[in-house]
Amino acid sequence: MDEKILSQLSIELGNRLKPQKLSITCAESCTGGWIAKVITDIAGSSAYFNRGFVTYSNDAKHEMLDVSLASLEQFGAVSEQVVKEMAAGALKVAKADFAVSVSGIAGPDGGSGEKPIGTVCFGFAFYIGEDIQTVTCRQHFVGDRNNVRLQAAIFSLKTLLEEIIKN
């Protein structure tokens, strides 16, 4: 059922982006490319999706998206500060109109008191004029590793549709 929801969300995203000749990119950590996969599952998605980034390690976040080492050190990879930088970096590198970034703890290991398993941070970036604007949020999902990742992908696409790409 959830896979069907992802497909419907991807179709809707394409239906909003394609007529306006807008594009999207993604920078994924815990979702491991799942968002890019569901976007590109839709025939014709090359009209609005040029590339995505799977930046699972801190080195990849820094090297590919220019996330600052200071942010990674101070806030950790699963933080609103880091996903903000991931989204902005992806937006610039891909020369896209919109970007979504995701970093989280899908489990079954890696949680802490401050960031328990199921904690996922999201970044959404877009241009207003020449300036990059970013919106971030933190969510907590329940379930096993697969369910946390699936819920994160669904949340990403829903948020893009509901909050970022309003027109």
TrEMBL record:
Gene3D superfamilies: CinA-like
Domain CinA C-terminal intervals: 9-163
Superkingdom per UniProt: Bacteria
Source organism of this protein record: Xenorhabdus hominickii
Name assigned to this protein: Competence damage-inducible protein A
